[in-house]
Amino acid sequence: MKTCGAIVEEGFVYRRETHLTVRKTSLFFVGDGFAAYDSNGRLVFRVDSYGPDSRDSTKLVLMDAIGRCILTVRRKRPSLHQRWDGFAGERTVKKPLFNVRRSSIIGQSSMVVEVYRNPGEEYQIEGSFGCRKCTIFNAKREVVAEIRRKVDAYSNVVLGKDVFQLSLKPGFDGAFAMGLVLILDQIHRADYEHN
Question: Whole-angstrom Cα distance, residue 9 to residue 71?
Fold first, then answer.
């Protein structure tokens, strides 16, 4: 598989297959914060939110372990396709790095991700984020990342949906993948609230 390289930041492109454990930092409100840890238990990414007023936000900021803003995702309104843009850093006034949208406005369809810096670089997200079972494919239909329920290695028990695994193939940008997780969580929240 050809590696895609950095979309958000080179420092989060892993040379080996990498598994991040992602945990919702609040269990009270859908769409609240996240923390992502590497296999050694070190914090890699975090998203902070502060209670029910932040749930209606159309903008989320992904930070690294020391709190540096590395990616901002913002919902485009109005949009029938649930369109979201991703921007480097905290500012959203410059050109976005990528765009995410539903492939269809009917039902729970797959998502299409278009990367602007490289015309033709596109990804497809299939599966159910609500069930924590999603696969991210590149344009050649090769798996580049997966979201799965986390299984406790010692007891072999599937953990709750508030803890899941984000698996990254070599060469795929982890910050970009985590940005997609934020967007999928917001879209899932919107779907949940409308049903």
Answer: 9
For residue 173, give the amino acid letter.
D
Q: Look up residue 81 and give its two tokens.
A: 């396709």
Q: Return the H-helix or E-strand segment holding 34.
A: strand 34-37
Rounded Cα–Cα distance for residues 124 and 135 (Å): 8
Q: What's the pLDDT tens digit per position in 57-106?
A: 678 999 999 999 999 999 887 666 678 999 999 876 789 999 999 876 55
How many Cβ atoms are within 10 Å of 149's Cβ, its own excluded?
A: 14
DSSP class of 190: H
pTM of the full structure: 0.87
Q: Burial of 93 by CB count in 10 Å (0-12 exposed, 13-18 middle, 19+ buried)?
A: exposed
Identify residue 140 by its one-letter amino acid code: K
User: Which structure tokens are listed for 97?
Assistant: 């790095």
Instruction: Assess contact for 146 and 164: CB atoms under 8 A.
Output: no
Q: What is the DSSP string of 149-169?
A: E-B-TTT--BPPTTEEEEEE-
Residues facing 98 on adjacent strands = 86, 115
The rounded distance, in Å, linking the Cα atoms of 113 and 7 is 12
Q: Is 179 helix (H, G, I), strand (E, B) or coil?
A: helix
